[in-house]
Structures are given as C-alpha cells and as structure tokens.
C-alpha cells in the first residue's frame, strides 16, 4: 500500500473519530479534509460508511452498560427503561423520514465546501447565542428526558442533514434550548447517534449497493480502526469538558474554521 495513502487514510480516520460526537460537524470536516489532502479513497461509499461505523461502535462500547440495562429493562417492562427507549425512537423518527425523502437532493446539491464553510460559521454563532440565553436546566439525567422534548431534539437533528451544521451540535443545542443540562444533552445525542448513524449507513449501502467496491480493504480497515480508537478517546473527556466549561470554545473554533475555509475557497 502506498505510504502517502496510508497517512492520508489515518488522518481522515482521526478527523472522523475526533469530530463525530463534537458539535463541529464530522461530515463538514471530512469534506474539507478530503479537499485539502486530495484524498481519493476506495471507490464507492464503503470507506465513508465504515469509518462512521467505527466511530459509532466506540460509543456503543463506552455506553454498553446503559445499553444492556435499557434492553433488559424493556424486556422486563420497566417504566423508566421503556420511556428512555421510546424517547430515543421518537427522536430518531423525524430524521429517518426526512432523510429518506431528501437523501438524493442532500447528497447531490449540499455536499460541497462552500455550504460546509457557511454552515460552520452560522452554527458557531447559534451555539454562542444558545449558551448565552439558555434557561436553567430541568432535566439532568437521561431518564428524565420526556417524550415531547425527545421529539423536539429529533426535529433539531434534521438540520444536520446540511453538511457543516453537525448532528451532535444540532441535537445538543436543541436539547439545551429545551432545558436539558449540558452533560445529559451530550449523552442523549450519543444515544440518538446510534440508530441515526447505523440507519443512515444501512440506507447508504442499500442505495449504493450496485456501485460498492471493497477494493482497497486495507485502506478501509485502517480508517475504521483509527476512527474507532479516536472516538473512544474523545467521548468521555468531551462530556467532562463541556460540563465544566460549556460549548463556547467549539463555537469559536467553528467560526474560525468556516472563515478560513471561505477565504481559501475565494482564493482558489
């Protein structure tokens, strides 16, 4: 395997793993990183799908105890587990419905560096505004998130179909607007990511099955492992950081990166 391709693959995997669960848009970062690096991965959609699955698998591993406890609780008809599971399903549905309906348009029209740059800046400003004016939280654990709030968070997630907005950013900030505390908002976003990203990956596989190509499986494996390890390392420290310091640093990072990207696009 070409050494240049290896380090580019590792960098793309690092970008995916570090950004997937932060409010900075992993898709936007991947688009910009591939543009800057001139990265040409394996043909088809396999590479992008697999590295996303690597990142989501890391979160499934980190929160395996809560997942198992919820499954056991649902089987035993425990009211708390049933409500939490229902909240995740309800939050997932809006993006599932709209994503299927708008999938082709989103992929063909919105996936470009200019859209990403603008969305990064607008999203950064939105985070600063929400952090400044968010009301005192009334939900401080995952089991306190009610079904109506879950639906609102799910509707906010639909904004993330625009590359650069950030799935994590839209769901976390949506939760903050509806008075969920920072750590719980982040963790609810992680759990919502599981069906959302797995569903999106399965749908991408279905839509692109005829053009999928597993040629370059070594590159795919490197991207998967790198994304998994990086996501594994970043999720827990992220929750601790935002619990103490908030989301301001991510907002300013988004604005700076978006402005830099726009400048490079104009100069290109």
Automatic annotation (TrEMBL):
Topologically, how does it sit relative to the membrane? Multi-pass membrane protein
Main location, first listed in the record: membrane
Its GO biological process terms? cell wall organization; peptidoglycan biosynthetic process; regulation of cell shape; response to antibiotic
Give the residue spans that cross the bilayer. Answer: 46-63, 84-103, 109-130, 183-203, 215-235, 247-267
Q: What's one Pfam family here?
A: BacA
> Where does this protein reside within or beyond the cell?
Cell membrane
| GO molecular function annotation | undecaprenyl-diphosphatase activity
**Which InterPro entries does the record cross-reference, listed alphabetically?**
UppP
Per the record, its GO cellular-component terms are: plasma membrane
Give the UniProt keywords, A-Z. Antibiotic resistance, Cell membrane, Cell shape, Cell wall biogenesis/degradation, Hydrolase, Membrane, Peptidoglycan synthesis, Transmembrane, Transmembrane helix
Under Enzyme Commission nomenclature, its number is 3.6.1.27
**According to its UniProt record, which reaction does this protein catalyse?**
di-trans,octa-cis-undecaprenyl diphosphate + H2O = di-trans,octa-cis-undecaprenyl phosphate + phosphate + H(+)
Chaperone as a keyword of this entry, yes or no, is no
Q: Which family does it belong to?
A: Belongs to the UppP family.
What more the UniProt record tells us is: Bacitracin is thought to be involved in the inhibition of peptidoglycan synthesis by sequestering undecaprenyl diphosphate, thereby reducing the pool of lipid carrier available.
* Protein function: Catalyzes the dephosphorylation of undecaprenyl diphosphate (UPP). Confers resistance to bacitracin.
UniProt-recorded name of the protein? Undecaprenyl-diphosphatase
Q: What is the lineage of its organism?
A: Bacteria, Pseudomonadati, Pseudomonadota, Alphaproteobacteria, Hyphomicrobiales
